[in-house]
Amino acid sequence: MKTLIRISGAALILASCLVIAFSAGCKKKSSTTNTGNCQCWNQNWLIGTWEGTTPSSIQPFAGKKIRIVFQKAHLQQYDTVSGNIRKTWTYSGTFSWDVDSAAWNMSFDSTHFPLANTILFECLTYCAAGLTVNNFSLRIADTTQADPYHTIDLDWGPVNSGDGVSPAYIDVFGDIQLDFNGLIYRAEYPPEAGKMIRLTKK
């Protein structure tokens, strides 16, 4: 099973220097706003219900609806990197797969970090450029059944923000794998337009 992707502070700073505009997955804004250009988004920007559907062009699992309900945020890490602040939050809630058909639900909890069934949001302020660099990482796997066995690994970022306004949708990339009686079915979602899974806040 994959572990949570941890981006080093140096890599985040490098990313902030190279990427000045928002990525395609964060152009639409929500109302969760912080003042100033060098503050992390409010950790509660994810709290609520997010939904998305897997692209119809990618098999297997085309057109499967995903729902994530975020209930609580927990500050997992707070440190400084070259004078800039880095914060890492983990979340508690419920992940649902194939919502409109044979729904499968799995809880995730901030106390599981850094093990499986963790959803993480990380922010690094880069005040010299008036930016924050943001990452989202989702690792969900079965703890209640062995057949089928679900493994869901999705990421978003690094994405730079210069206005302190969190997005109302994110385009996640990664892979989803199901093991049915020893037969493995896997779909990959590369970080390319039209091939990622768009999760929208409801």
Can you describe what's shown?
This protein is mainly β and 202 residues long. The protein has 1 helix and 12 strands; from the N terminus they run αββββββββββββ. A hairpin with a 2-residue loop joins strand 10 (169-180) and strand 11. The relative contact order is 0.24.
Largest sheet, in brief, is: 8 strands, antiparallel, barrel
| Strand residues, percent | over 45%
Strand segment tally: 12
Order of helices and strands: HEEEEEEEEEEEE
Q: What is the overall number of helices?
A: 1
Question: Which labels suit this protein?
Answer:
single chain, mainly beta, 8-stranded antiparallel β-barrel, globular, disordered N terminus
Summarize it:
The chain is mostly beta strands and 202 residues long.
Describe the secondary structure blueprint for this structure.
Layout: H1 9-18, E1 29-33, E2 48-53, E3 65-81, E4 84-97, E5 104-108, E6 118-126, E7 131-141, E8 149-161, E9 165-167, E10 169-180, E11 183-189, E12 197-201
Antiparallel strand pairs: 1-9, 2-3, 2-12, 3-4, 4-5, 4-6, 6-7, 7-8, 8-10, 10-11, 10-12
